[in-house]
Specification:
The structure is a single chain. The chain is an alpha+beta fold. The chain is 17% helix and 37% strand.
Length: 197
């Protein structure tokens, strides 16, 4: 089954004359065939108010400081929220993905790999996978480095099998020289899986 890709414009925030890293992110489309059909084993692809509320509150108040600017978008199969912080030159992103007929671990393995990573990091000049690990069958962490506009960034990208039809993602991006700050945010977000060892 081919995966169609669509580029999504999430946010464009400027720090002086410099763009926040990855403020324009791309996300791959979920696989879909034909028109959405709600059956006993499938649900609607359209996000519910509960999906929107869950995406908006998923990170709690971690990105609620005055320097964090939040935006969100609701589309078929997803709700995504972006927080950008100009003074820290940092970005956080969460997304609620709806798999209308459910998913298996192999679907998650395929979605978060290869060509989809190229789409997710399309707005970076380069990126490199560093490691990936799981704390349970439900929580995964992927670690990357990336470059944009002459700056090098560390990226942590968590995925959580939230329900039978929902997957939550959360990504944080900080300059590599802000390791202690990234570690602090990681431990506040996912203390059970702050990094891959």
């Amino acid at each position: 089954m081919k995966i169609k890709f669509s580029i999504l414009l999430i946010a464009a925030i400027f720090l002086s004359a410099c763009e926040i890293p990855g403020a324009v992110l791309a996300t791959p489309s979920l696989p879909s065939v034909g028109q959405p059909v709600v059956t006993p084993s499938c649900i609607s692809r359209e996000p519910t108010q509960a999906d929107i509320d869950h995406a908006l509150t998923y990170a709690g108040k971690i990105f609620s400081g005055i320097d964090w600017v939040r935006s969100y978008t609701v589309e078929t199969n997803r709700v995504y929220v972006t927080w950008s912080n100009g003074p820290l030159n940092a970005l956080a992103f969460t997304e609620a993905l709806i798999f209308e007929c459910g998913y298996m671990d192999s679907d998650i393995d395929a979605y978060f790999s290869g060509e989809n990573w190229n789409t997710i990091f399309a707005n970076y000049e380069t990126y490199q996978a560093i490691s990936e690990c799981k704390s349970t069958n439900k929580l995964r962490l992927y670690q990357f480095t990336a470059q944009k506009a002459g700056f090098e960034y560390a990226i942590k990208y968590w995925t959580l099998n939230d329900t039978d039809t929902r997957v939550m993602e959360l990504m944080i991006v900080f300059p590599v020289d802000s390791k202690s700050l990234m570690d602090e945010f990681s431990s506040r977000l996912f203390p059970e899986l702050t990094s891959c060892k």
